[in-house]
Amino acid sequence: MIGDVSERLGAIIALGGPVVAILVGFSVLSMACILWKAAVFAKEGIGGSVTRGFSREALAQVRAARSAGAECEELRLRAQAHLDVGFARVGAGLRLLDVIAQVAPLLGLFGTVLGMIDAFRTLQEAGGTADPAILAGGIWVALVTTAAGLVVAMPTSMALSWFDARIDRHERAVMDALEEMFTPDVFARRDAAQPQAGQAAHA
């Protein structure tokens, strides 16, 4: 089975030329990066709640420091800086996916332009005796690179959007939990104060 895949891959590279070879390398790199980031996200518990990983450890340290009587503002700034470092570490590698998602379709289009130039040069050299089937075959081969670029770019872009959304959701959950430690039940106190203010006005 691996031999068949390698043979087909070699045929595609031979058909599309060096541009397709580069796009195949991009696809392998993108898949490896996606699997790596998925494992990191699973390990750190990146999602809508704080269950494990660096964020839970940071919140536990903040809770312990609060119990020890640490200064609130200094502790908040230090915790935010620590969390920023953690989120930067978790998000490392996503820039690579962004680059692949943007460059792959452009590289495919570049390969198509080169193929079209070669096809029309062949048509010019043949003069009026050119076979339309040969020209159509050259154009078809040229369009392979555009299709390959889109095949690489679309799943990469979808994976990048999914990773970004999970990081944003997790960061909001962590920051909300952090602020809850410094201002616990602030909304509950405000809601409780509003009915009392309304009763005083009626009185």
From TrEMBL:
Any one annotated GO CC term: plasma membrane
Signal peptide: none
Topology in membrane: Multi-pass membrane protein
Top-level taxon: Bacteria
Membrane-crossing residue ranges in chain numbering: 12-36, 96-117, 137-163
Keywords, sorted A to Z: Cell membrane, Membrane, Protein transport, Transmembrane, Transmembrane helix, Transport
A Pfam family assignment: MotA_ExbB
Chain ranges of the MotA/TolQ/ExbB proton channel domain: 55-172
GO biological process, one term: protein import
Subcellular location: Cell membrane; Membrane
Assigned protein family: Belongs to the exbB/tolQ family.
Protein name: MotA/TolQ/ExbB proton channel family protein
